[in-house]
Amino acid sequence: MKLKTLVWTSAATAATAAAGGVATDPESSWYRALRKPDWQPPAIAFPVVWTALYADLAVSSAVALDSDEGSDTPGHTTAAQELRAYRGALAVNFALNAAWSWLFWRSRRPWLAAAECAVLTASSADLVRRTYRLSPGAGVSLAPYALWCGFATALSTAIARLNPQAADRR
């Protein structure tokens, strides 16, 4: 992994975290009034888990981008095409990641946020698959990110189900 690549992926990951963080407001009266499932983790878990996952995302994607594992065999995509597709998938994932906070916290649309989170989970699973193709170790390392996004989808859906009128309480 090259330092230049790690700086780029770290900056992109930090920008994603900052974009989502600007919209996040767990102290809002709207959020405090929402019913939450009994299995929701304590509030402190979210910044701790997301910080670790974002660090892993930055490193794993840098390793994948700098790998020499591209498939340059006939009938397959070239390594350059695979890396270009990876960069696109990573950019889409970053955008989806940041968008959830805006849909949930700012737009106050739990159902829309839950649906978007399901798309984020699919994008994250695809990113793990793509990462694994380029660097198996980095792909395995990134798997908790997709799993956490799946958990976030379940949690978002549960909150939406428990609060059918939440979008009306803007």
Structure summarized in a few sentences:
By secondary structure, this protein is mostly helical.
3D architecture notes:
- By secondary structure, the protein is mainly α.
- It has one domain (30-68, 76-168): TspO/MBR protein (Ferritin), CATH 1.20.1260.
- The chain contains six helices and no strands.
- The protein has helices at residues 3-23, 29-33, 45-65, 79-106, 110-134, 136-162.
- It is elongated, with a radius of gyration of 17 Å.
Q: Let me know the number of strands.
A: 0
Relative helix content: over 70%
Quickly count the domains: 1
Q: What integer value in Å does the Rg equal?
A: 17 Å
User: What would CATH call the class?
Assistant: Mainly Alpha
Distance between the amino and carboxyl termini: 46 Å
SSE string, helices as H and strands as E: HHHHHH
Which structural class fits the helix and strand makeup?
Answer: mainly alpha
Give the count of helical stretches. Answer: 6
Return the average pLDDT rounded to an integer: 94
Low-confidence runs (pLDDT<50, min 5 residues)?
A: none
Please outline the major beta sheet.
none
Corresponding CATH superfamily: TspO/MBR protein
Could you say which overall geometry the principal axes of the C-alpha atoms support? Answer: elongated
Residues in β-strands, percent: under 5%
Enter the CATH topology name: Ferritin
**Which CATH-level-2 architecture?**
Up-down Bundle
